[in-house]
Amino acid sequence: MSVPGLWGIVAPVFGLPFIAAGAYGSVGRFVHRRWQRRQIAYVLTSERILTVYRNRLVCRFYHTLRYLEKRENGDGSGTILFDKRPVDWHDFHFAFFNELIQEREYEYAAIDDVDAVWALIEAQRRRWMKPSAK
Fold first, then answer.
1. How far apart are CA 116 and CA 90, in angstroms?
2. Is 12 exposed, middle or buried (0-12, 13-18, 19+ CB in 10 A)?
3. Mean pLDDT, to the nearest integer, of 88-110?
4. Torsion of CA 88, 94, 100, 102, to 10 degrees
């Protein structure tokens, strides 16, 4: 019986990070994203859109929204995107990772009845966008 040399120990350990990266890329990212979404709380008030994630509050006023988009799935669920964060060209190589981190601040994701939430946001937005008559 022979005892494995140093290469017999190092080679399997060296491959573990590649296996872990492949597992995350194929399945783990979906599980991780679902776990993240369960930690997010969405709140609509009469003046603001609020997102609470890990004790961080992100607030947007209806009258300051420059961008609003609804992405609906066939089953009526969907996502509402608002005020996309511009990507800086000098930081472009990190854009993918930045989107993974900050994307959730700019969307209401996995909404069961996206039309109902969209209607609430649009109603409040129209209310705040009206020019005041004096």
1. 39
2. exposed
3. 57
4. -40
What are the structure tokens assigned to 80, written together?
């509402």
Q: What is the mean pLDDT of the chain?
A: 78
Q: What is the DSSP letter of 132?
A: P
- pLDDT for 2: 59
Instruction: Output the pTM of the full model.
Output: 0.60
**What's the length of the chain?**
134
CA Rg value for the chain: 22
Query: Distance (Å, rounded) from C-alpha 108 to C-alpha 104?
Result: 7
Rounded mean pLDDT, 20-48: 84
Record the tokens describing residue 23, joined without a space: 């597992």
CA atoms within 13 A on the CB side of 46: 0
| 68 contacts 121 by C-beta, under 8 angstroms | yes
